[in-house]
Design brief:
The structure is a single chain. About 1% of the residues have low confidence. The protein is α/β, with parallel strands linked by helices and 341 residues long. The protein is globular, with a radius of gyration of 18 Å. The protein has a single domain, classed as Metal-dependent hydrolases (TIM Barrel, Alpha-Beta Barrel), CATH 3.20.20. 40% of the residues lie in helices and 13% in strands. The longest helix is centred in the first third of the chain and has 21 residues. The structure holds zinc ion.
Length: 341
């Protein structure tokens, strides 16, 4: 089964390995790490044919737990973003037979035909963008095709949803004027907007403003796991009404009723969330948003090579070939066609 996935943090993990110019550091340690969930070798073996690759800027205080806290400064975020864009380009330059940076859905299909991983670049938290959004032009040229204005912390554009469990997504104010400008600018360029880390007021602001279907790249069902990162029934209804999509997230903290980051988590929970998403969004409105390299995921999956275990669990639950094909790749490709062309 081929997988096109809605969210991974491989670039962030590689960046954490160091960005020394000589850097076999980041490449070798990042890509060859046995600790991570994703690398080119395992991805190819597992049928991981592409996905949204996030550029995530950590909080400024080194070593701080990545939950809440102050966002990084514009200066720090700009440097780190440039580092990660360079890492993506270097990965393509060095491993061009295995991975391609994709700007359109035709690029994705061409990469997949050539057995290359299709990498679509995504920004998770727009701290490298200023209030007039002029950076978007450069970011678009460098390949950014998807953007979440906020991670789970406040910035210039609004307030991300906090991570504390349990909690409502309805915490904090909506988008600032700059946030609304960012939404219009992304619409203008054909950059997909990601709602996954937005608080509820910000979510409704985008629902009102954006002229595109609503997308949450890696979120689950609040009714089944009351994390503020998950979507309420009203939010799911709004996504359905817009013809949008939700990427089912493997993070155990957004699956379990106790919100624990516990790898000893049954795949039955993933099936339950997926069933609930399909119930509201239909078979065309659900895909996968693994959060590989960014979260604690069930041991039963382990890393990208464990996708077959999830496929098995879905088949046990009665999902047929056609539905699995939609969930594992087609729904993302259809949505990206509508979002980025
Ligand atoms: Zn995330």
């Amino acid at each position: 089964m081929h997988l096109f996935d809605g969210h991974n943090d491989l670039l962030y993990r590689m960046w954490q390995c160091g960005t020394d110019p000589a850097h076999d550091g980041a490449m070798a340690r990042g890509l060859a790490s046995v600790d991570g969930h994703l690398d080119l070798t395992r991805a190819s073996a597992a049928g991981f044919t592409g996905g949204l690759f996030a550029l995530f800027i950590p909080n400024s205080a080194a070593g701080e737990e990545l939950s809440g806290g102050q966002p990084p400064s514009y200066e720090d975020a700009s440097v780190i973003c440039a580092d990660m864009l360079a890492l993506a380009d270097e990965m393509v330059a060095r491993f061009g037979d295995n991975i391609a940076k994709c700007l359109t859905v035709s690029d994705i299909l061409a990469a997949q035909d050539a057995s290359k991983i299709a990498m679509v670049l995504h920004i998770e938290g727009a701290e490298m963008i200023s209030a007039d959004c002029h950076e978007i032009e450069m970011l678009y040229q460098r390949g950014i095709r998807s953007l979440g204005p906020l991670w789970s912390r406040p910035n210039l554009f609004g307030e991300g949803v906090p991570l504390q469990f349990p909690g409502s997504p309805d915490q904090g104010d909506g988008l600032s004027d700059a946030g609304k400008r960012l939404v219009r600018t992304c619409n203008h360029y054909g950059i997909m907007l990601d709602l996954s880390h937005l608080n509820e007021k910000g979510f409704w602001d985008i629902a009102k403003l954006s002229d595109k279907p609503l997308v949450a790249t890696h979120s689950n069902v609040h009714r089944l796991c009351p994390s503020p990162r998950n979507l309420t029934d009203r939010q799911l209804d709004a996504i359905a009404e817009s013809g949008g999509i939700v990427g089912l997230c493997f993070a155990t903290g957004y699956l379990r009723t106790d919100g624990e980051k516990n790898p000893d988590t049954s795949l039955a929970l993933l099936v339950q969330h997926c069933d609930a998403l399909i119930e509201t969004l239909g078979e065309g409105g659900v895909a996968l948003g693994s959060d590989f390299d960014g979260a604690c995921i069930p041991n039963a999956i382990g890393d990208c090579t464990g996708m077959s275990a999830l496929e098995h669990a879905f088949r046990q639950a009665g999902y047929d070939d056609a539905l699995l094909h939609r969930l594992f790749s087609q729904n993302w490709l259809d949505m990206l066609t509508r979002q980025i062309g």
